[in-house]
Write a structure and sequence with these properties.
Blueprint: E1 6-12, E2 16-25, E3 28-38, H1 53-69, E4 78-82, H2 84-88, H3 92-103, E5 107-109, H4 112-125, E6 133-139, E7 144-150, E8 153-160, H5 164-171, H6 179-193, H7 196-199, E9 207-211, H8 213-224, E10 231-233, H9 234-247, H10 260-263, H11 266-279, E11 284-288, H12 292-303, H13 310-321, H14 326-341, H15 344-347, H16 353-365, H17 378-388, H18 396-407, H19 423-438, E12 451-454, E13 461-466, H20 470-473, H21 475-489, E14 494-499
Parallel strand pairs: 1-4, 4-5, 6-9, 9-11, 13-14
Antiparallel strand pairs: 1-2, 2-3, 6-7, 7-8, 10-11, 12-13
């Protein structure tokens, strides 16, 4: 990453959408611009977990304004993620497809634990170095993340499905701020968070920190009322709760430091925060400036270096856990990437090329991850593992795409639930399948003179050119390639072998 480069992070939260633009300088980021808009997508989920038309429109309108500010940014300068609301929404594809077109950049829906990891990175990178064991709590609109770590390394990551928006909708829907409503909301929050006590026992951390959203809003209101700045205490929470109860309704709330956009969700947010501090027996929660979006920015920086890219570390970890034959994985990766490189001009993706190549490499590295469960159905088990394992660094759609590549690296193509109109995916899966065939003997194949190209005469037709006598020298590989030709005949694409 060059000094002076601009980077942007977009956090599509349940309550607010945030855009932070920073300048990279000698390993650090310096804020250039910060935009926050209250969108409240979390309150737009109906009983069937579909986002309402109004919630969809609010999100798209906000992203159109963000897109104007991001004009001229390149893909490696921007990362956008969505959290709990879009994790839950059944019609999230409707939102994401249009949102991608509006924003001009892909939006990743991250898992709860990946959200927690990014929060930890964002918080710790903006704090002085320390070897203290830190517990970080982030109360969002529809989820609460808890992370335990030391230094810049997160050790335990959890996400719980409750937050300021969801709690406010259920217990403060009329806007009334009563003692009974706070009691019910806190009891409900403790019921959800009770299991966290076993995961985050009191003696496991030295310092408790609060990040973003609810914690920041409560701390600001307390500080302006005369309480110590940048901290939240249980006494302060009790005082604030009584103030709200005395006011009685959010429409009458005129508390200095409490922004207008926060009033509608303060009841639920305060209840969740009180419940968490009670359960964890936290007397003082320190407020930190770091948040999810800062974790995104540092992740962008590290992705420029494969040795620091957490996704590469995750792939290596999965290989170790499932005892993958790494020599074979690397062999298949080399051949698959060699074949895909030959299709580069047909793909026309110069700017995004490293991303497609990297994803193919990871799929090849993990294509045998399911062999410890079953050799025959390894591709099916490998796909299941990738779709259902919490893997740091990856968004949910990235993992699903990898799982489809792993599922499709062998077997019948027509039975795969893949989009055969997605040409880039077809290029990747063809390259991987051919590499697996060519490396079937678990040794480097003879690829001199071998070329893969898209036919200039026949639409959707790949041509694999082999040297004369190649089929004679490698009859088993030739047989497998002939079977692969038949497999593609049952799809909307075609593969031809050319022996000159």
């Amino acid at each position: 990453m060059k000094n002076g480069s601009l980077l942007a992070a977009i956090d599509l939260g349940s309550n607010s959408f945030r855009l932070e633009i920073c300048r990279y300088s000698h390993g650090l980021i310096q804020r250039v611009e910060y935009i926050k808009e209250t969108v409240r997508q979390g309150s737009g989920l109906d009983e069937d977990r579909n986002l309402s038309v109004e919630a969809l429109e609010r999100g798209w309108d906000c992203l159109s304004r963000f897109a104007e500010r991001l004009a001229g940014f390149k893909p490696n300068q921007v990362r956008a993620v969505a959290t709990q609301t879009l994790r839950e929404a059944k019609n999230r594809k409707v939102f994401l497809d249009k949102a991608h077109r509006i924003l001009g950049f892909p939006i990743e829906v991250v898992s709860g634990r990946e959200e927690a990891r990014l929060i930890y990175q964002g918080v710790t990178r903006l704090l002085p170095p320390s070897q203290d064991k830190r517990l970080i709590i982030d109360i969002g609109g529809r989820s609460t993340e808890c992370v335990l770590g030391q230094g810049v390394h997160a050790k335990v990551l959890e996400s719980y499905r409750l937050g300021s928006v969801s709690s406010s909708m259920k217990y403060f829907s009329t806007g009334e701020l009563t003692a009974q409503a706070f009691h019910r909301a806190e009891v409900a929050a403790k019921a959800v968070m009770d299991e966290a006590l076993a995961v985050f026992p009191k003696k496991s951390w030295d310092t408790a920190l609060g990040s973003s959203g609810t914690v920041g809003a409560v701390a600001e209101a307390l500080a302006l009322a005369g309480w110590p700045p940048a901290v939240v205490t249980r006494k302060g929470l009790d005082w604030l709760k009584q103030e709200l109860i005395q006011v009685g309704h959010i429409d009458k709330l005129r508390l200095e430091g409490l922004r207008e956009d926060r009033k509608a969700v303060i009841g639920g947010g305060l209840s969740v925060l009180s419940a968490v501090m009670d359960l964890f027996d936290i007397d003082t929660l320190q407020v930190t400036p770091g948040a999810l979006r800062h974790g995104l920015l540092y992740d962008l920086i590290e992705r420029e270096d494969m040795d620091k890219d957490v996704r590469a570390v995750t792939v290596a970890g999965l290989q170790k856990t499932f005892r993958v034959d790494t020599a074979q994985a690397q062999r298949v990766s080399r051949v698959a990437c060699f074949l895909l490189e030959q299709l580069k001009s047909d793909m026309g993706v110069d700017q995004d090329w490293p991303r497609y190549l990297k994803k193919l490499d990871w799929a090849a590295q993990l294509h045998e991850v399911g062999t410890q469960i079953s050799h025959t159905d390894a591709h099916k088990h490998g796909a299941y593992i990738l779709d259902n394992t919490d893997t740091p660094g990856f968004a949910m759609h990235e993992l699903h795409r990898l799982s489809l590549l792993v599922l499709g690296h062998k077997g019948k193509l027509r039975k795969l639930e893949i989009d055969f109109e997605d040409a880039f995916f077809i290029y990747q899966i063809l390259s991987l399948r051919l590499a697996v065939i060519l490396c079937h003997a678990r040794r480097d194949p003879e690829s001199d003179g071998m070329t893969l190209r898209l036919s200039s005469q026949v639409p959707r037709c790949f041509e694999l050119k082999l040297e004369p006598m190649w089929s004679v020298r490698f009859p088993q590989s030739s047989h497998l390639l002939q079977q692969e030709v038949v497999s593609w005949q049952k799809t909307s694409w075609e593969l031809r072998l050319i022996n000159d």
